[in-house]
Amino acid sequence: MNTAKCLALSLVLVTAAGVTIAAEPLFEDVTAGMGLSAPGSRSSAAWADLDNDGWPDLIVQGRIWRNLQGKGFAEITKESGIAQPGYFSVAADFNGDGHIDLVFPDRKDPLWLGDGKGHFTPGEMTPPPNLKSQGATAADFDGDGWVDLYVSSFESWKPQRSFPDFRYRNNQGKLELAWTAEPGETMRGRCATAADFNNDGAVDIYVGNYRLQPNFLWVNDGKGNFVNRAREYGAAGSERPGTTFTTDYKVKYNSSGHTISALWGDFDNDGWIDLFVGNFSHPPKYQDRAQFLQNGGPDKEFHFIDRSADAKLTWQESYSGSAAADYDNDGRLDLFFATVYKNDKSRLFHNEGDWRFKEVPEGGGIKSALTYQAAWADFDNDGRVDLFTAGKLYRNVGPAGNYLRLKLTDRAPNTTAIGAVVKVSGNGVLPQMRQVETGTGTGCQNESALHFGLGNSTGEVTAEIRWPDGTTESFPNLKSNTYYQIVRGGKPEVFRGGKPQK
User: Fold this and answer.
1) pLDDT averaged over every residue in the chain
2) Up-side HSE of residue 446: CA atoms within 13 Å toward CB?
3) What secondary structure does DSSP assign to 220-282, as a single string?
4) Are strands 135-139 and 148-152 parallel, antiparallel or unpaired?
5) Are 274 and 264 in contact (CB under 8 A)?
6) Has this prediction a pTM greater than 0.85?
7) CA distance to 86, 103, 144, 190, 455, per residue, from 107 (Å)
């Protein structure tokens, strides 16, 4: 094993004489140095390039920060023109003009249209039927090219009651309420995330529900009609018999998990997108622990296989937000898992392959704090993904392999290519698949530029892109350690901190 890999796996080295030496951390807190003054630590965070300059900006807890080309951040909340931004957001091009817009599902005036310069004006959107959301996800659900929206709904505490999820259809830039869950479909949702898990060209939705309630897997027929098939596909939770509860709407269910976060990612590099279910769990064994669900692919008709026992994540009672990225560029997705109990801690897990995950000592330098935040972005464009969590920005300073970064631009109206799937292969690298997505974890959003770790390979690789409408393009001879911007139908352009270069 090379030195870089050794350091990536441990912060402690022991010499032959038994002397313990602290290794350099993998991450360092650069929050203050980057000008992020008390950005907020509890509710969700999202990365998005609001001004189209190739550098991901940050939206967190009702505040908006412009990325000054990796050298710092400047708050632009007041200048943005948004009246009372919400505590969490979804970033996408909803009106098809090529600029990122923002939806704040916990506000009565939720849609704000961006001009590509960091300024926003109100958009047309039916007010949400309730403001109890902690998670939402956007994609083109009905195949018309326009980006739609699904919002999960949680609960009120006094009086304690649950609220129905709801979904919007994008009518040429106007978000219109298209569906509200019936009583039998109303659980206490805490997160929503989307992917075409069964490879049929239609984006599906996974919703994580709390209070030991089964989770939803809304399978899409390609026209925006959904059926919950979580139980059939093995993604609802354990639903243990003999532990029966009843919802507010008199619907009985068997115990599963307190799901707080969920995310999609190809954790085993087989080309099929898998599912991580981030469960909070009290000690009783009838409560589901965190789950890794392997996508069985076409051989298993895309049913999920529980690989949690192989992963062996350290158990603790209080897990919360989660986010996946390849922090050391070895070609495998790693996992960060946050906490909300003071006696527990946030944890960083390294993907060893074959569904084995090893905890990185002391979080690799990421200090534990109480939060639901977890969102990855290479904010300084140095080829190593960085993490925002608990109101802190952690720059990746650890040893890392080679990389490839791709930012995709599709035709209007889905200009940010949400739902696009990219596979990278060749020259001895681990084959990898990534998707352009919005909602992940607990109401968070990673940057839309896709990051691929190439390990020790410095040669050229090929990227196969399946655009959201199913059209495919192949881009061979892409160089390692390069950030490409790819416009559909065009040639890859190299981004070097200013304008892309051919």
Assistant:
1) 93
2) 29
3) E-SSS-EEE-HHHHT-S---EEEEEEE-TTS-EEEE--EEEEEEEE-TTSSSS-EEEEEEE--
4) antiparallel
5) yes
6) yes
7) 6, 9, 27, 17, 43
